[in-house]
Every structure is written in structure tokens, then in C-alpha cells.
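ligand=adenosine-5'-triphosphate
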Amino acid sequence: MTAKIVVVGSFNADLVAYLERMPRPGETVHGDRFATSAGGKGSNQAVAAARLGAEVTFIGRVGSDVFAELAYEIWDAEGINRDFVSADVEVATGVAPILVDSSGENMIVVVLGANSRLRASDIDAARERIAAADVLVTQLEVNLDTVQYALETAKQLGITTILNPAPAAAVPQSMLDLADYLTPNETELETLSGSSGDFAAAARTLLTRADQTAIVTLGAQGAQIVSTDECETIPTYAVDVVDTTGAGDAFNAGLAVALAEGKALAEAVRFANAAAALSVTQPGAAPSAPHREAVDALFTQNL
Ligand code: ATP
Ligand code: RIB
């Protein structure tokens, strides 16, 4: 069965400088290499889901500039439906200047641009497509009222929802309540819950329904599944890290596709870990999203 995924989210042109170490405030350092590539959490998740074999529709907003061409190029190359993407004539495409150091860690500035002008009407236009999906995935990199509306629409239509609450932002509980799966990293969990340390306890403060699940991503430690009464850590695969940008995006795409295909939750998280682990072995965000064969090959290996 082909997974049908709708992603409501951002596109950014990633302007990436690779360097030995991060500059301190006021300091200038030399970079080793520079790349411009397709990014944005929403688009990265759409690309990763398409490479995992899903039928993907992207709902988003870009500008009418040269960076929008970068978006169209990757969506068309990956077979992603863009019927519900609008081109804003007043505001530029989102951009993200990114620094990546020699350990693979990153620092990112996101200038949302057109992403912040995604509207409820853009979601309404895609209502039938959402109704036909298995899973709707969204993040916090577009207008937050629209994120809320997209989740409400999916829930009304009985569609499974994943909210990747990234980048870190405080959001109303009413938005969290609409997510069947919440996928914060450690920082995002701390921002949402106001507490640190015990991830399961912090995650449980966000859950208001017995059928809701938080999946806290823990970098090289894998991910922790937390529901109101259970908690399980799913370790990940040991890999050589080149660039962690987009790891969370590959994880969310893997989770969405695996759930849509009917995998049990722990297996779905292990599949998501495999997709994300492979993504950190390659540079870039969308460019590092792995293809299905590679993920299946890793997934079938013992940890
Ligand atoms: P990013 O912002 O870099 O995209 P994130 O901070 O949102 O990532 P992380 O928890 O760091 O999220 O990573 C997401 C997932 O990526 C992890 O749950 C894990 O599956 C995978 N991952 C991240 N780092 C590593 C690593 N060093 N080795 C293997 N897998 C990793
Ligand atoms: O998750 C990685 C993404 O975050 C980058 O592609 C960048 O555009 C920012 O949105």
C-alpha cells in the first residue's frame, strides 16, 4: 500500500557555510565550503517522505523569486504534488543561513518570508486531498494559526496528525491537543513543557488524551515513545556524522510513512531512526534524505 502523506509547512532556501568551528560573537572565521540547497522543515519532510516511497502533497507558500525555483525543482524531481502551493508576489521565499561545524553540529537563522503568509484558505483549497490522506504532518515554521487550522481540518476529517513542534516555540495547549503524535526534540520539549531532565514526565504534561503519543527525539540516543501510561526508548543506529541538519525532518518523514503503512509504533519509530541516522551521514537537509532501499537495508539490521 502506498502511503499518502500531506505536509503543511515551510520551504526555505538553505544558505549553508561549512566551517571548522563556529565563530564567537564579533568574530570572523573562514568557511571551507558553501552550498545553496532546498530546505525548510516542511519541504524537507515532504522530500524525505517521497524518497521513502510515499505519495506526497505539499501545502505551502513561496515567493516569486529565484529561490522559489529551487523549491519547484526539488518537488518536481521527487514527484511531490504542488497543486496547493501558492506564490506570493509581495514577500520573498523563506531563507535559512546555516553554519555547520566539523562535528556536524549546526546553527540556523530562519527568515520566514512567504511561509508566514500561509492561510486557512490554502488549507481549505486542499480539503479533499487532506481527506484522502493517511497522515497529515506539520511543524511550526509557517503561520501558527494556519498550523492550528490544518490540524483541526485533519482531525475533523479523521486523519492521523503528526505535529513536529519545531523550531522551538511556545504554542497553545489547544494546538497540542490536535496532534495524535507530537515529536519534539529535547529543546522543543523543554520549551513546551517548561521543564527539563525527565523527558517522560515533561512529555506527559503535554498529553491530554490517552490515545496521544509524544515521541521525543534524542539525537544519537534515538527516540523515546511516551504515552500517558507507557514509556519506551528506541535506540538508533551508530553512524559517522557529517551534518545533522534535517535529521529531525527525516525522522518525522520516516514516522509518517511507517505509520501510514500500518507499522506498529515501536517499529515505526525504529524505521524513523533508520531514516534519520542515514540522513546525518550526508551534507544538507533535503539533499541528505535517504531513499527507501537504503533505509530498508538498515532497518533490517540488528541494532
Ligand atoms: P536537527 O535539528 O539536527 O534536524 P533535531 O534536533 O530536531 O535534529 P535530534 O533529536 O537531534 O533532532 O535528531 C532526530 C533524530 O535523528 C534522532 O531521533 C535520531 O533518530 C537521528 N539522529 C540524530 N543524530 C544522530 C546521530 N548522531 N546518530 C544517529 N542518529 C542520529
Ligand atoms: O530542519 C532543518 C531545516 O530547518 C533547514 O532546512 C532550515 O531551512 C530550517 O528550516
